[in-house]
Amino acid sequence: MALLRVVPWFLCPLSWFVSADLDVELYRTAKKSPDLKAVEGDVQKISEFLLEQRPSRHVALLLHDANCPHCRKALPELDLVAKALTKEAVVLGHVDCTSNKAAMRTHFNLKGFPCLLFWRKQPESLDELVGKTVVVDSDSAFLLRASRLAGLGAERDKSRLALLGKEVIILQVDGKDMTVQVETETKQKVWIPHEVLIEQGRRVPYRREEAMTKYQNLWEKDLMQSFVQRAMQPLVAKLPSSSLQSLEKEDGHALVLCAAVLSRGFLEAATNYHQTLRAFHTPSCPELGSGDHILSYSPASLQWTAVPGRAKAAAAVAGKEVTSNDTHLVQWVEQHQYPGISALTIHSVHAWLRAGRPTVLLAIKLNDFEKNIMVENQLREVGKPTPVGNMELYSYGPFDRYLGVADGTLEGFNYFGVAASNLPRVVVFDDPEHWVEDEDYVTAERLSEHLPRVARMWRMSSTPRGYALWIAKRFVAVYLKLDRDANASFGYAGRCVVKIQSEDAGIQMTWHKYPGSALTCPDDPFRPRLPSTPGFAKAVLLAIKLNDSEKNIMDIMVETQLRGGLSTVVVFDPEHLEDEDYVTAERRWLSEISARTALVVLWLLTLAAAHLGTRGDVGYVQSASWGRPRPTRIPMQVRERRSEKRAPSKRGKPRGNYVDAKKLTSSMAGAKSAEEFVKILNAAVDGPIFNYFHASCAYHRLATWKRSGKLAKAAGGLKFSKLNARVQEMIEEGQLHARELANVLWSFVPDKAKDMKPQELSNVLLAAAKLKDDEPDVVNVVPAIVAQVPDKAKDMKPQELSNVLWAAAKLKDDATDVLNVVPAIVAQVPDKAKDMIPQHLSNVLWAAASLKDDEPDVVNVVPSIVAQVPDKAKDMKPQGLSNVLLAAAKLKDDAPDMLNVVSVIVAQVPDKAKDMKPQGLSNVLLAAAKLKDDAPDMLNMVSVIVAQVPDKAKDMKPQELSNVLWAAAKLKDDARGVLNVVPAIVAQVPDKAKDMIPQGLSNVLWAAAKLKDNARGVLNVVPAIVAQVPNKAKDLKPQELSNVLWAAARLQDDATDMLNVVPAIVAQVPDKAKDMTPQALSNVLWAAAKLKDDEPDVVNVVPAIVAQVPDKAKDMKPQDLSNSLLALVLLQDSVPGVSSFLRGGSRSNTGFVGEAASRVAKLLPKLSDLDLFLTPPAVVWACAKMELPHDELLSAVAQRFASRKTISSLRDWGLCALYGSYQLLGSTDRFTNFAEMLKKELTRRGLSDSDVGWSLEGPLDGAYPEK
Fold this sequence. Notes:
Blueprint: H1 2-5, H2 12-31, E1 37-39, H3 43-53, E2 58-64, H4 69-84, E3 90-96, H5 101-108, E4 115-119, E5 133-136, H6 140-149, H7 157-161, E6 167-174, E7 179-183, E8 189-193, E9 197-199, E10 202-203, E11 213-214, H8 221-232, E12 236-238, E13 254-258, H9 264-272, E14 278-282, E15 293-298, E16 313-318, H10 320-323, H11 326-334, E17 341-343, H12 349-353, E18 359-364, H13 369-383, E19 386-388, E20 391-393, E21 402-407, E22 425-431, E23 434-436, H14 447-450, E24 460-461, H15 464-496, E25 499-503, E26 506-510, E27 529-530, E28 539-543, H16 551-562, E29 568-572, H17 582-591, H18 595-615, E30 620-623, H19 636-639, H20 658-670, H21 674-684, H22 692-707, H23 720-732, H24 738-752, H25 758-771, H26 782-786, H27 789-792, H28 798-811, H29 822-832, H30 838-851, H31 862-872, H32 878-891, H33 902-912, H34 918-931, H35 942-952, H36 958-971, H37 982-992, H38 998-1011, H39 1022-1026, H40 1029-1032, H41 1038-1051, H42 1062-1072, H43 1078-1091, H44 1102-1112, H45 1118-1131, H46 1138-1143, H47 1152-1163, H48 1169-1185, H49 1191-1200, H50 1204-1208, ...
Parallel strand pairs: 1-3, 2-3, 12-14, 13-14, 16-20, 17-21, 18-21, 28-29, 29-30
Antiparallel strand pairs: 2-4, 4-11, 5-6, 5-9, 6-7, 7-8, 9-10, 13-15, 15-16, 18-22, 19-20, 22-23, 23-24, 25-26, 26-27
Helix pairs in contact: 2-4, 4-8, 9-11, 16-18, 20-22, 22-24, 25-28, 28-29, 28-30, 30-31, 30-32, 32-33, 32-34, 34-35, 34-36, 36-37, 36-38, 38-41, 41-42, 41-43, 43-44, 43-45, 45-47, 45-48, 47-48, 47-49, 48-51, 51-52, 51-53
C-alpha cells in the first residue's frame, strides 16, 4: 500500500486501462461459465426457457449489455453466486441484450442494464384461468392496494372499482405481474390483479410472490446472493415453535403474525417487504399474551449499543385492533419495519431512510467509548423501550421517529453538514431529501430535550432553496452567538446596544440604554474592559429599538462615519427575541425583516465600503433582523432623490403632458417638407414630451424623404445623434414596442444592408423573426438582408450562424426569400460547431427540424452538432433540452444520428423540468410520444414532466394544449402516469379552442377518442372543438380529415355533438383522398361504415377512397387491411360499385377480397399476437360474406390455430366468426379437427349457435384490446 501511494501520477491512466481490460476478460470468461445458463437475447426464447425451468426450479436471469461497464462487473459476480448455489433449486443464467436492447426494455419494463430478474418456481400457470367466469372481490381498498402492488396505474381505477362484486370473464393473463384481463357484461375490458378474484365462492389462491422480482442494490456477490436466497424463501413460513425465542436465530428483520388464520393483509405485507423482512405465522405467542398479535422484529445483531455484545433484540407489537383490519395491518407494517436503535451500515441506511417514518440518525466515532455511552443513554431516553424476555419492545406514535446509529467517519456524512472531526452529531430526516442538522440546537448531549425543537427549524435539502437556507442559517448563527455572549455578560442591557471596537490596549465594549441620543456616552459609569485578543476583527454590533426614536437611523450613520475601519456590521432589533428560544428567532429571520432595518443595513454597507475601500480592507456585512413590520419614513435627503433616467411610460400614454404630446404628433405628421420636419424634430428631441411614437415617426419619415432624395438639403441641421441616443434609451427602458422597432428597422436596413457586418445581418434577421407576430410588416426587411448573407456567411461566428438558421426557420412561412440563406449557413456550421455554446446547438437542431421539408440539405448540419451535444448537455437550459428532444423526434428518419443524443438529454430533464416553460413541457411530451419506440429511455422522464403540467396548463397556448393531449393518448399504455395531465388540459381547452389551428383541432378530437375509456373527463372538450371544425375544415390536411372522421365514429355514442362535424369533413375528403396514407384510407372507410346509419351522407366519401385503395393496399398493415375489408363488405349495399371492387368483376378472387386473403395467408406465420387474433377472423369472415372461398387462406388459418392455447386467445367475435365462416363456406368437412376444436372452445365459453349467427353480422370494432 505504501508503494501505491508514491506511484507517479502519470501512471494512473495506465492503471485504469489495466482495470478495464481485466473487467472485460472476467466478463468474457463469465459468459462461457458452465454454472450460468446462456439464454438467447429474444423475448420468445426467454419465455420458452422460463416455461421449461419454472415448473420445478427458481430462475434468476441477468440481462446485460456488452458495452456497459456495470454489466461487465455484474456478470462475473453472478457467476460467483452461481458457483455458491449449485446445490440450490435455482437456475442462474444470463441474457446478452446487446443487439436487442429496445425490445428487452419494453417487454420487461427496464430502465437500463444490467438488470437481475428473479422468478419463483411455478408448478401451475395462471393460463388455466382463461375463459372462466369469476366474481371480483367487493373490498375496494384491497383492490386498489393490489393494483398498486401489481404495478397497475391509477388512471383506470375507476373502471376497476366499477367491477366490485360483479361477474367477469377472464380473457387473458400476464405472468410477469400476475394480472388478468377481464371482460364485463358491457364488453368493457380491464386489467386487474389475480388476487381479487373469487371462483365458486372461494378466493383464487394468492400467488403474488410468483410475479417477477427485480434486484435493486450494488453489483456485489454477497448482496446478489442474499437477494436470490431471500427470494427463494417461502412468502410466509411457519414459526419453528410457538415461542418467540426461535427468532433469535434470524439474522435479518422479521414479521410475525400470531393468529389462528393467515390473513390476506399479512400476505400483502409479506409481499411488499419480501426483500427486507422474513414473514412467519404462528397460531399464538405466549410471551405477548392471549389474542391475535402482529410483531415486527429486529435481531440483536442489527441493534446498536455502546458496548459490543450487550444489544438485545428489538420489536414493535400491535394487537387485534390492527390484525383484524387488512388495511390497518398493511399500514402498520409500513411504519414499523425498523424497531429499536438500528446499527446502520452504508448498505442499510438507504432502505432505513425510506422505511415509512421520519428518522433520527446519530453519527458517532466508533472508538469513543465515553461519548457513545452518553449517546446510548440519550437514545434510550427517547425510545423508552420496555423489556420483555430477551427483547425490548418499542412503541411508536404517529409522529415518533426511527432511531439509528452509524459510523460518522463514513464518506457522505459531510453532505449533511457532519464533519468527522466533530462527533457525535445528530441529523434528523423528514424523508431522504429533507433534513435538519444543527450542532448548537439539536445535540447528542441533550437529544431528548432538543428533539421537540425540530418541528420549528429550517429544513435543509439538495434543492436551491435548501442551499439558500443553509447560507442564511450561517448568518443567523453568527448573530445568535454574539447575542448569547452579550446576554451572558451584561444581561438584557447587553442585548440592547453593544459596540465592539478595536483599541490598542484591548477591546472595549460599551452599551447604551437611551436610544435616540448619541451612541457614545462618556458619562456612563458602566464601561467594562475585556482582555486584548490578537487578530480580533474590527467590528460593530448595533442593536436598536427602531420604534423608540426616528433619530436612531441618523445616529447610526453619524456614528459609523466617525468610527472608521469597520470590517463587520451586524444590525438587529432584539425587542421580540425570547431569552431562550433561539430557534423561533431563527425561523422569523427571513419572514419578519423590517423595511427600516433593511434601510439601515444598506446605509451601513455603503458607508463601511467607502471607509474600507480607502484602507484596502474587505468589507463584509451581515444583517440579521427580527421585528414587526412597521411604516417607514425615509429621511428627507433620501426621499427626495430622483433618478436621472426618465421613468418608462406605458404604451399609449406618453411621458409628460398628454395634450402637448398630441400637439407634437400633429405637428410632425403635418410637416410639408423635410426642412420643416427637421426643425420640429430638433426642437422636441430633448424635451420631456418626446415619446416612442415620435421616435418611430421620425425614423420612418426621414427614411422616406431620404429615398426620395428630399432630405439632402435639411440633413446638415439634423440632430441625428440625439435622436439615436433617445431611441437607445427607449429600447433599454422597454418603451419601443414591435411596430416602432419595425419602423426603425425598415428605415435603416434596405439602404444599409450591403454595408452591414455579418453580426449586424444576423441581428436584423433575429429581430425580424421575433417581431413578425406583433408587426407583420417587419418581414419587408428580409429580402435586403438575405441578399447579403451568402457572401458574408463564411465570416460569421458560431452564434451568428445559429441565429440566422433559427430566424430562417421562424420566417420561412412569412418571407420565403429567407430560405436562400440556408445553403450558405449549412456549409459553415460543421467547421464551427465545436465552438457553439449549448443554446446555439439546440437552436440549430430545432431549425434543422423545422426546415428539413423546405430545404432538405439542412440535415447535413446534424452530425457535427450531435457530436457536440453529449459534452454540453449538462449546461443546456430547460428550453434547449426540450428543443433538442423535439428535433430528435422530427429528424429521426432523415438524420438517424439524432437518436444518439436522446439518452444524454433525457438524463438532464429530471433536474430541470420544474423550470421548463409550458411550451417546453408540451414539446418534451410530444417528443416522448414520437420517440417511444426508437428511444425507450424517453419514457423514463415522462412522470417528471407530467408532475409539472397541472400548475402550468393555464399558461399553455392552444397548440401546446393539443400537443399534450395527443401525447397523452399515444403514451397511455407505455407511461401510465401520463393520464394525470388530462384533467388540467381539458379544463383549459374550451376557452382556447377558437384559437386552435386545424391540426390542433384534429389532434384534440383524435386524443379524446383514444382516451375516452381511460379518462372520461376528456369528453368535455368535444363541444368546444366541434364548434370550430366546420369553419376550418377546408384547411385540414388529409391525415387530419381522416382522424376527425375516425374520432366521430368512435365518439358518436359518447358525445353526440361529434356528428355535427361529419358534413364538413365529408365535403373535403374527395379532393384530398389521393394524398391520404394507407392507414388514413382505412380509417375513413371504417368510420363511414360506423356512421352510415346516423349520417347517411358519409357514404359519399367511399368512391374517392376506393379509387385510391388498389395503389396503396400493398402498403397497408394487417390491421388496416382487415378494417378496410370489414368496412367495404358492410358498405357494399350502400355504395354502388363496392361489390364489384370486392369481387373483381366476373371472376372470383380477383378483387380486393382475393388480394387481401392471399396477402394475409402469406403473412399469417409472422403475425404478432394482436394482429393474429383479429385479422384472420376478419378476412375469413369477409370471404364468407362475399361467398368467395379462398383455399390458401382457409388452410393457413386452420394450421396457425391448430393448438387449443391459440384458439383460447381469440376474442369471442373472432371465435364465433371463424366457426360460422367455415360453416358458411362449407369447409367444416375439409377441416374437421379444426372445426371440432372451435366447437369445443365455444362450448367451454358457453357461446351458442345464436352467438355464431350474430357474429356473421360483423364486429365493426376496429380497436384491439388495450391493457
